[in-house]
Every structure is written in structure tokens, then in C-alpha cells.
Amino acid sequence: MPMIELQALPQGIGQERLQELLSELAHIASDSLKAPLKAVFVVFRPIEAGCYMHEDSAIPLQTKDSHPPLLRISAFVGRTGEQIAECLRRCAESIELSLGLESGNVFASYVELQSGHVLTGGILRRQNPTV
Q: Does some domain include residue 131?
């Protein structure tokens, strides 16, 4: 059950385009990590203007070459290095294209969740290779 969390400064795109990006990220994770789409969660958290310091600067809006959006993908252990790398690369590229960022202006990380360390729907989840 991959969880994608995207945090970024206010964007110059509308809500509809943002929702398209989130859907695209879910499909990328589903494809790259071989997880059913219904098991992928995607969340966007806006960073309040002035609350993100990078290069000793806090700016009010996203720029194409600074203050990279922060992407964190969490999923159960068991994916190959190639699957993880593909998911990170494709998600970062999608964000760059959607937000009009320069190539490489996304900070992306991947966190492996241990079996039995995730609770959803009131159930302690155990690793399932397909989720």
C-alpha cells in the first residue's frame, strides 16, 4: 500500500490540474511498484508561504529552479532497487512537467515500511507482495 506525500509551496496551477497530477502519481506508483491502484494513497500538503527555507531564502510561491517540492513515497519492503528508482524518477519527472520546474528540482525519497508497522481500517497490516 504505497503512500505518496507531496509538499510544495503554493503553485501557479489550478485545483483541477493539481488533482490530475495526484492521479498521475498514483498511477505511476501502481505501475512501478506493482501495487493495485486501489491500494495507493496520494496526499498534497501545501507549504505556507514563508515557511520553507532553502538556500537561506523563504519565498511565497514556487519557482522553477529553487525550493524543490518534497516528495516522499512509503511502501512495504520487498520492492527491488530498480522498481524504487523507477518510481522515484517517474514521479519526480511528472511533478517537474506538471509544475513547470527545471529538471532535477524535486527532492524525492523512498521509505520502506516494515510488515506489521502499518495500521489502516483498524487492521495491523502484514506484508503482501502485491500491495
A: no
